[in-house]
What we know:
Chain A is an alpha+beta fold.
Amino acid sequence: MRVVIDGDLCQGQGRCFSIAPSVFGFDELGNGVVLAAGELGEGALELARLAQANCPEHAVRVVE
Amino acid sequence: MTLEKTPVTDFATDFDHTDPAWVADPYPIWEELRQRCPVAHTERYGGAWFPATHEGVSRIAKDTKNFTSRTVIMNDGRPDELALPSPIGVAPPITSDPPFHQIARKLILPAFSPGAINPLEPQVRALCRTLLDRLAESDVVEASWEYARLIPPSVIRQMLGFPEEDTEVFIDIVHTVTESVDLPMDERIAAFEPIEEYFTRQIEDHQVHPRDDLTTFLLNAEIDGQKLAVEHVFGTMILILVAGIDTTWSAIGSSLWHLAQNPSDLERLVHEPDLMTVALEEFLRFYAPVTMARLVKHDMDYLGVAMKEDDWILLGFPAANRDPAAFPDADRFIIDRAENRHVAFGLGIHRCAGSNLARLELRVALEEFVARYPRFTLADPDQVTWSQGQIRGPRRLPIRVG
Ligand code: HEM
Ligand code: SF4
């Protein structure tokens, strides 16, 4: 499982990187970026799912 | 002078967000509307709609084809003398439509990104402590007027590089803009004069003496190799003041109002400081302070109602946050709510540009208050007053700390 941020949907308000700073970061405009590229470990996966459940723009997606 | 208004008897067909019942406690009204309409209407303000559901609010917030942000504060007039034509608008980017909106927004985002805002934490903390030191003498403290109110303007004044002694002038300016929805247009224009004069003076001073602050940043900013028009710089500054002060003041005040009446939540925050990250979001969901407005671009059927060109939409993010269809136990404050897609900062392209700053101020203001007063209660519920208009928060909040 990996996590992606849909750049068209993200409005950069940082729920993801405040919940899971080990998985997400931010760029110069404050938009979310994925730090943990590739397959997620168990802990990271749980955090990524939590971020998904908290992103108001539905921009965070955990995918196969 | 405020115009006399007829009291509302039916919010579904004749709503008014400045009606005393709505100002005192809007939540039961919204719940009733969700069950009855769910899009309420009024002939007031020249015609307006209020969708009370999360679905309605998100659809409109994300739909810039059918709605314009030309003005976002509902009033008796329509944008005319005070406004630049769409898509630029008077206070970019909040009153701008695409495609210009994105240009104006990208311009200011770096100044409010986490990278720029996080380093302000020590100065925000020092400010809160100074304010608390001033309160320390008595058993009852004024937590809104003498604490929450004073935090945001100091921070923004510093960011803009305006003189320290002008903090009170700032607060007057913000009041004029956000709480004058009831004034006739000519009085609003008159009220704006001193503001324009003050800002022009500050901008001129920065043109002569550039320094490392947001004003200089805006004066130097370029779009397609062109410096910004002075009206753009002025509009953006007004926006930052309007958007950043009453809003954050209200969020801090409502959160303290909640804690004063819910000792178990207060105790958890005192003993589990790590809870703050999620608690903050629940404060924002439950007491979302900001309602916005849109204008309908053309006649159309939308959300099952017949909207007319230039009808207002009152865009109730706070109502969306209480919709049981979007949040389980929507009417319960759950301090450790783990899943919380609240929309207190809006949705879509206009989503709050200042949210990193707002969260920083709210978190630090609460952390410091709770650290200073681990136990407090409402001194006198009858003395608590609430703001009127699109920004909701307590304006007087006497709290017993002794
Ligand atoms: C708790 C405090 C705050 C809340 C609840 C809040 C809420 C909002 C909301 C709901 C919007 C969307 C407007 C719309 O859809 O028309 C917005 C936009 C905006 N806010 Fe905030 N805000 C807060 C604090 C701040 C602060 C501290 C600043 C900056 C100093 C700020 C700057 C802005 C700006 C510039 C926009 C316009 C963004 C755009 O149109 O692209 N806000 N805010
Ligand atoms: S929470 Fe969603 S909208 Fe916010 S930065 Fe992360 S991905 Fe973007």
